[in-house]
Amino acid sequence: MQIELAYGKERLKVKVPDDVHTEVVEPRYVKGLPDPLLAVKEALDHPINHPSLSGSVREVQKAAIIFSDITRATPYHMILPPLLQALGHLPDDHITFFCANGTHRPATPEELITILGGEVTERFRIVQNNASDSSQQKFVGLTTSGNRILLNKEVLEYDLRILTGFIEPHFFAGFSGGGKALMPGMASLETVRNNHAIRNLDHPNTRWGHTSGNPLWEDVMEAAELAAPLFLLNITLNRDKEITGVFAGELREAHARGCAFAKKTAMAPLSEAFDIVITSNSGYPLDLNVYQSVKGMSAAERVVKEGGSIILVAECWDGIPDGSDYETILKSVDKVETLMEFILEHEAELQDTWQVYFQAMVQKKADVFLFSKLDPETVKSTHLEPVSKINGLILELVEKYGPDTRICVLPEGPHTIPYLI
Fold first, then answer.
1. pTM for the whole structure
2. Residues 421, 264: Cα–Cα separation, whole Å
3. Rounded mean pLDDT of the chain?
């Protein structure tokens, strides 16, 4: 059986033996909307539990548009024309674009053009969040959990904050989109660390597809609401990166409807675990580095047997990334078995433990192999096993697990979230 996996901007073909029990699990395909620009316009004109966007901002007011960085596949070329049309009564200098970097590196000028298009980058001012620069942050209040919410102080100066992005299952926030544009998108490192603390990651509801009762997600939404007034513009996408739904309006209700729509297409119940799970990281741009690719292995972990194997394909053109706290932590231990112990001991002085936490959880359960463009030594430095010949590895693992080997394939990676029933 030949299967194509999302890999970079292409599809990677792999071969699974015909005589092995194999289940291919993909999102339920939903056709793209026939006129996505019109759908966005109508959603802005008739939002959920909120006045129209054009009627929400007077000519003398200013609007902040918060957009996703290069790690997200939001199709802004389809979102921005109707969005800017709805704000057409505002002069250009009353609209600023804010890149929700969170704790990620800043977007390069080329990446900003890729995300927003050349016309927008030339026409409007763009501000990027720097989570590590306390002078850029302002305290806006405490959440129920006691998290001190510090957000980019410039984004707070605007009369309306428009949160954009797309909704898909997220491995610890439950779903992406919603308040994540502000926190962690425009938040300080201190705020993000408190939200992403191991005490929250350890909670049983801090998992794929869970929002209500998820302490991390609840904290995110409370943090965003401290920066009201807000307007949400979220979309859902199919595997071809086409818009399948538009959810605009009041933060909680619009996001809840988008999550319900995404859950129907992305969550896949399975009856039995597998010896081998072959997964992607959803291709470009999500598989840009090893850090982001933890999501793909986390999706696979949900249905792999104890002592099983996960084969992850991710291009990783952006490296680990080099110089990141994630890389520093991985290189601070000699073996993967001590990763969890290390971050538990040093959480107070580390900037980013959450991705390592989930990688350690996955690798406690299964072996993880990575097929990428990285050289083998770089892959080994992340405590993953490098793969050069993926078809050969599949045959080796089938021989290891024997004639009753069960294989699961997730061609779209974390765009499909399998779970056992």
1. 0.88
2. 16
3. 95
